[in-house]
């Protein structure tokens, strides 16, 4: 479904744009994803809307066939990239699973603010972004995904999420389309 509207109380959720994650090789340049996400964060702040910055620092305890062994991580691995220009008004979530809603208090925080819609961006499209979008949808939020502000380590997984999964969870659009919708509400 193409992007149609943004609710009056929409929040931006930025997934895992942190130093350790953006250093991985990705299907689309991470620098461009960071640039687009930063533009969205600036626009949301300018319009007085909530910005949620999410990082990951750990992993779920369950077994998997394809366990990821990260080894010893640099001290700044979980630090958000400076381009996001984190502000005191931003809500920060540190997650230990794929999705930003799992055991973090994010849902309660957004509901307390009266948020009814979320715009989600970040890395990885098929893991952190998709998990967060699924939970947002299941929690009753209208979901928008800025497809030019996300990437994955696997181009097939990225494509699958954008073309097959996201249209079932909400609306997709570009960073500029979202900014234009925000700006048109104030005009």
UniProtKB/TrEMBL annotation:
GO molecular function: hydrolase activity
Keywords: Hydrolase
SUPFAM superfamilies listed in its UniProt record: Isochorismatase-like hydrolases
Pfam family, one: Isochorismatase
Domain Isochorismatase-like, chain residue ranges per copy: 10-177
Protein name (database record): Hydrolase
């Amino acid at each position: 479904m193409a992007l149609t509207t943004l609710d009056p109380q929409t929040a931006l959720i930025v997934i895992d744009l942190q130093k350790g994650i953006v250093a991985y090789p990705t299907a689309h340049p991470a620098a461009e994803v960071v640039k687009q996400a930063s533009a969205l964060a600036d626009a949301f702040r300018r319009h007085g809307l909530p910005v949620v910055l999410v990082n990951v620092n750990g992993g779920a305890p369950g077994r998997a066939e394809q366990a990821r062994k990260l080894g010893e991580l640099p001290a700044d691995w979980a630090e958000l990239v400076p381009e996001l220009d984190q502000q005191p008004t931003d809500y920060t979530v540190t997650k230990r699973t794929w999705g930003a809603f799992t055991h973090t208090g994010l849902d309660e925080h957004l509901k307390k603010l009266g948020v009814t819609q979320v715009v989600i961006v970040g890395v990885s499209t098929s893991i952190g972004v998709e998990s967060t979008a699924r939970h947002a949808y299941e929690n009753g939020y209208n979901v928008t995904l800025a497809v030019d502000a996300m990437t994955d380590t696997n181009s097939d997984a990225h494509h699958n999420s954008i073309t097959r999964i996201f249209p079932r969870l909400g609306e997709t659009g570009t960073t500029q389309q979202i900014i234009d919708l925000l700006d048109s509400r104030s005009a």
